[in-house]
Fold this protein.
Amino acid sequence: MADVSRLNVNGSIRTIETDEEVSLLSVLRDQLDLTGTKYGCGEGACGACTVLVDGQWRRSCITPVGSVGEKKITTIEGLAEGEHLHPLQQAFLDEAAMQCAYCTSGMIMTAAALLKKKPNPSEAEIVEFMEGNVCRCGTYPRIVAAIAKGAKALRDSGMAAKESGR
Amino acid sequence: MSGMVKSAYALEPERYELTAPPAYRFEVDRRGFVKFLGAGILVVCVFKDTTVAQESGGRSRGEALPREIGAWMHLGEDGRVTVFTGKVEVGQNIRTSLTQAVAEELRVTTTQIEMIMGDTKLTPFDMGTFGSRTTPTMNLQLRKVAAAAREVLIGLAAAQWNVDREHLVADAGKITDAATKRSIAYAALAKGRQLSETVAIDNSLVPAAQWTVAGQSLPRVDGRDFVTGKHRYPSDQKLPDMQHGKILRPAAFDASLASLDTKEAERIPSVSVVRDGSFVGVVAPTVETASRALAAIKAEWKSEPQPPNRELFEYLKKTPAEGDEPVEAVFDSGSSPQALAAADHHSQQTYTVSYIAHVPLEPRAAVAQWSGDELTVWTGTQRPFGVRGELSEAFRIPEDKVRVLMPDMGSGYGGKHTGETAIEAARLARAAKRPVKLVWTREEEFTWAYFRPAGVMEVSGGVQKDGTLTAWEFHNYNSGTAGIRTFYEIPNQSIRFHPARSPLRQGSYRALAATANHFARESFMDELAHSIGMDPLEFRLKNLKNERLRAVFEAAAQKFGWGRAKSATGQGFGMGGGYEKLGNVATCAEVAVDRKSGKAKVVRVVTAFECGAIVNPDNLRNQIAGSNIMGLGGALFEAIEFENGRILNGRLSKYRVPRFSDVPVLETVLLDRKDIPSAGAGECPIVGLAPAIGNAIFDATGVRLRSLPMVPAGLKIS
């Protein structure tokens, strides 16, 4: 078993001490205390653990930390720019797109990956892309509305272009 | 610890929610409490209404408190308002709606208010957050506490200025003298005081028609913490030197340990194995090491054959619960056998519902810490005080040595009433002499929590040619008595509940048995309507006097466009509704059935709902949508499969829950009855959906589906 000692998380290099096969989710939560990323099923079937790895969505519960290497990991804690919320975060607030909100981090991170690929998704495209994320409280219609709203805000702010260029 | 598994089977659907309070409760040290809060004004609410007291103040049994306390509130000299309630936030957004109630009565901004919830050391006793009771009870109590605090503040200002209090007005966080226009802030009135007021709750409240803060769609008070990942759920709690635990689970329900070999696990560095009777667990510095140690344990289990899900309904009918009366006569009037025989038309049908799982996205979790003989546990539960009682009993320590804290958790839906995880974490922590965290895996949550009861409903009805219902017989096996009574006017009735021995651990679930009973009743109503060639809406209204129910049926039908012609093949319309937990709901559904593929899709759902005066319309809509979407799973495809005491589909990849693509167009009609006290809305809206869908599928295909879930593998048309 090889050890992993460095991880590039939310723009900084973090020192860790773990075996390569340990899940990225465990490392984020237990070693780096980034608990915004949630455990829901342990098999990539609910989306609660979603993070971005080089801008692509990944289910961190089934991602061995050794497979990530030096790639850039973004968690929910790293999405806002300082005090300034990411447009998706703001849209989830504006649309009250949550109840218990345990799924919210994973929803926002998956949606962020969608908007990097498709800055102006249709409702059907949102539904299709988000199908792997579960909201057991049933706030799906509001989440779809929030993603559409966040997408528009992102386009209007010009951040979409900047982000896809990252 | 061996009592744990045994008690699992004592859980019953309805009686379960009315769990007896603990035998002892210990007085909160109010002086110490005030010290903790600092200077200011403390207002304690006592009430004498015994129905309210049962939930929040608790019944008197070895009761130390002289009077019943519902809630308390502190106004600090910095102007901060701290409100204490034993209710908990599980996603129903009461942290916000209760804040609104306090803001309204105290006349401060919501940002000045902090809610302390579900901490057994700091908040008054509360039986639990279930049964849609927060809005009708706690909302009212907090209004009354806040109104009392406002009167105290007016009194203080009147004394300070030496004027008649009649001239003073409380508004915007200050008291103003209408005559002189001078004013003083609440904070200034609280400054330097150590005032503790106990008030009776009978204060005048702001009538719903004059609400300004309550009744509005206030955004979630702490929403930002949830979109940034900052909020710490129970499973996110962390303590210095904390270890991680895992529990050895039996191979099947009711299995007993035949042999155990833990040597290999104990050889793993920094792992300790904890054994106490049938309880076996491991503690390690990381989850991964604990999992490895658990896998290294060799255990053999003995178990008896147990019924599989395919024989479930026969089993429930022929296996009465032990130690229970075999039949509970819920309601009788007239003579139903005679009336059935005399009716122009009569028929009988059987309906069933499967076991389903709550699947709260956050599984059960607890962090336990011992300090000498004192225990503190952070855990996700709807009953922090109940869990305190369980811990006290399990460890044979007084309740005042146990503190349970409930950080706002990742939902419950009635599924987190019990304290298994808290007890397990505490047992491991006691052995490890360090704090221990235990988070159940999804498989554990599916297997070792409890399920919504399965059930069999047998219904007979008699009806005259003109649509008048004359006879009604209703038998429910196992699923429970919630919503079992019919709200239609029927002179001859016989309603029975048959408690059964459940092969799986069962307990409360959003709306309890009301979902099953409404499914049977409202499907059968549709069947009766068709049997006499009458429109289902007309048939319902002909037999319904209750004005509130009539109003929701009429409102839903109007919005839905009930009675319009079908515009496509495979299209079908259906309705269902009822009364539960002080709320009234009617649901109309449109389905599209593809006869080739057998796929049934719910296209549109219109819900009309009325729960008295509306506290927060936006949140109410959110709750109704949630009920409908959760209800969709139980109606269409959710079912627990099991055999010989093992769950066969206990993973999210095998147990299908509603997802984005399952969601129909949802439309809601809210009837705001400002003249009726506000009731909760977390449960009632779920009960109309399944029958509305079933009736719509019949309308589309002529196929009557009488089992929930209705289309677990697509619709088979015979």
